[in-house]
Amino acid sequence: RIYYAAVVPFAIPTEEFFSFEALWKGVILGLGPCILGKVFCALLAGDSRFVIGWGMATRGEFAILVAHSAYTSTLVGPMAFSIVLWALVCGWVLPPFAFRMVLKRFLAEQRANEEASEAQP
Fold first, then answer.
1. Separation between Cα atoms, residue 3 and residue 80, nearest integer Å
2. SS3 sequence of the chain
3. Which of 6, 27, 80, 91 could, after both became Cys, cross-link 34 (CB 3.0–4.6 A)?
């Protein structure tokens, strides 16, 4: 862990990473396949579908290692690597907040349903 925590940040091509092109493409990639793809996969999971979907959306720690390996072995160039990094950043930053909101709403609905069922004789 410590090795990758030190190696991966120093491998980021800063000129490409901070370009507008990498940012907008990374955000599109991050919102689509990285986040919404996982949320939509859970639509058939019953009442807790959005809790499950948003809970899955925060996963992506291994993807940074795969992206770094592809970049260092020259399978992808600096721009593609930067785009993937922005996509992963979106996948790490946004889903926890959405997950918290969805979980609070789900738990409130569960409590309301329990109270309603207890109130009925």
1. 23
2. CHHHHHHHHHHCCHHHHCCHHHHHHHHHHHHHHHHHHHHHHCCCCHHHHHHHHHHHHCCCHHHHHHHHHHHHCCCCCHHHHHHHHHHHHHHHHHHHHHHHHHHHHHHHHHHHHHHHHHHCC
3. 91
At which residue do the structure tokens 């991966």 appear?
8
Here the tokens at position 121 are 């004789």
Nearest to 57 by CA among 30, 78, 81, 83: 30
What the block records as the tokens of 17 is: 């990473």
Residue owning tokens 């409590």: 111
Distance CA 107, CA 33 (A): 27
The span from the CA of 4 to the CA of 2, in Å, is: 6
- Answer for the pair 10, 2: CB distance below 8 angstroms, yes or no: no
pTM equals 0.82
pLDDT in tens, 4-23: 677 778 889 999 999 999 99
Q: What is the CA radius of gyration of the chain?
A: 19
